[in-house]
Amino acid sequence: MEYTAGPDRAKRDLFRTFWETYGSIVITILCLLFIILAWFMGRNGWSGAEVALYVLAYGIGGHRKAIEGLETLFKEKDLDVDLLMVVAAVGAASIGYWMDGAILIFIFCLSGTLEDFTMEKTNQDIQSIMKLRPEEAVVLDGGAERRVKVERLQPGDVVLVRPGERVPSDGHVVEGQSAVDQASITGESIPVDKLAEDEVFAGTINGQGALKIQVSKPAEETLLSRIIHMVQEAKNEMPPSQLFVERFEGIYAKIVVAAAALLMTLPPFILGWDWDKTIYRAMIFLVVASPCALVSSIMPAILSGISNAARKGVLFKGGVHLEHIGHVNTVAFDKTGTLTEGKPKLTDIVPLLDYTEEALLRLTASIENLSEHPIAKVIVQQAKDRGVVLETAQALTAIPGVGVRGSVNGVMCKVGKIGLMHNPVLTELEVSIAKRLESEGKTVLYVEADQLLVGILAIQDVVRPGAKAAVAALKQMGMQVVMLTGDREATALAIGRQLGVDQVYADCLPEDKVAIVKQLSVNGKVAMIGDGVNDAPALAVSSVGIAMGAAGTDVALETANVVLMADDLSKISYAISLGRRTARVIKQNLAFAIGVVLVLVVSNFFGGINLPFGVVGHEGSTLLVILSGLRLLR
């Protein structure tokens, strides 16, 4: 028998959701309402009702901060700003300044509501990502269909995804064809055609055709789940500046309390003040010296920056990385799969003798058709894309590391390196063609028919669209841009020239990349961008490791501090700009907060400010630094 929640439980759940979302706003409004009513009662001579309403305002607006402050005091044996504010408000009331203390409670409550709003914005980003994942999937079991929770899917299960439905899990297509909208995961604006063996991601939307998909990962390991996990981690992880301020807050609060205690006892004996004035000034000191604005200077800005970046497809795993990326002065790129697409393409077909391009491609693809070598597959795919009809090859022999040979319609053919050819001596024209292609960083293949060289082909891993513009944008920001690759030097230099990077490091093993990143780090912070398992060590030792979200391996994604979900390299300059802007906002907030505290503390003793002015000045500065942090949401 299935359990169904009753209407009472549904109502409780609805109320709990409402209260978690809007509770702090309701409390702030009620606090203000009771203050206004109390003021009205006081103006009309109803003092008993006035005090009762002020007590309600104090209780509603300050109870949460009082509880949190007392818990910190008794459980952690420490003082915090929450308790200081409540004590100051109660102290003001104890000497008859009910209105002043109530305003303090209200503004403090309002600043807490703004902080909750900042956190809620980040929660909404997480919830909007979680909505991409369907709750159920249709599993095919011996021809029958059964619905199961997505969390129960296991690798090997085959699921049916009908047109318009979301893909429930990462996997690959086993039957059917359709165009899948992957914008939510990879950022591609145009749906991608999916055929058998093509990879699909959880949360993407199926187009016009039904697909049978074999699940490759459990629900908690899908790319979508990793995105959710990374955003949650980023929300909860505090940057070093915030940790420092929180440690400083405890020490500072003790100093303020000790100073307030001295101010409550010494002035009558030293300065000749009466006790009312002494306690009043001590209460003002408690209010204006509390580090509320200082504490609120950092996390709202950090959370706003992380939320902004998440909306643009850049996932920071923590506030510390948002801080670090703003101080980067060197950007190191892996080449294959990062600056390039990681998929070799047939870029040049140069026919010789009386062969045409199509005839040369037909001959070469026919010979390579039975080969499993990646280069062979590239040539065959190019022929199919051009609609070239292939012949049947016979007596095919693969020579590892050199090439293949066989016959097509009685013509003996060879495809591979120059050493495989019958006559390895090239004419001046052929040498110039080969040198030009090699200087462009391409892999050169020679094609022979009946012992005559009939053509030259070139294969190359092509540059990713937008890579050159991304490099240019980084250099314009004053970044040093370098490229690390395991490719041979000629290929690496050709790609480096094409992209305009400052320096190229070729023939790099994983440990070489680590050594180079460490060497570059001597002169400042280094951001490393990569996608493969071999990039993971360099990502780990860099100041900020950035992984390609769609093309990246699991190891790279786990090791990196930042993930580019759409593999859009232009987002790197955006992320660095956001980090710099966040650092500027935090510095502005801290300077403003410290300045306001100093001015108010001095004014309390020499300018004779009253409690309402102290409350508005101090809590107003807190509101302003929170609003300043929220600018980063734009």
Q: Could you give a short account of the major beta sheet?
A: 7 strands, mixed
- Report the radius of gyration as a whole number of Å: 34 Å
Averaged pLDDT, please? 80
What is the count of helical runs?
23
In helices, the fraction of residues equals: 40-55%
SSE class: alpha+beta
Oligomer: single chain
Q: Any low-confidence stretches, pLDDT <50, length ≥5? A: 1-5
Strand content: 15-25%
Query: Major sheet: order of its strands?
Result: 10-22-21-20-11-18-19
Instruction: For the record, give the distance between the C-alpha atoms at the N and C termini, rounded to a whole number.
Output: 50 Å
Q: What's the domain count?
A: 4
The rough form would be described as elongated
Protein name: Heavy metal translocating P-type ATPase
Organism: Paenibacillus mesotrionivorans
Entry summary:
The protein folds into four domains: 16-127 and 236-302 and 584-633, no CATH class; 136-229, Calcium-transporting ATPase, cytoplasmic transduction domain A, CATH 2.70.150; 303-340 and 464-580, Rossmann fold (3-Layer(aba) Sandwich); 342-463, Calcium-transporting ATPase, cytoplasmic domain N (3-Layer(aba) Sandwich), CATH 3.40.1110.10.
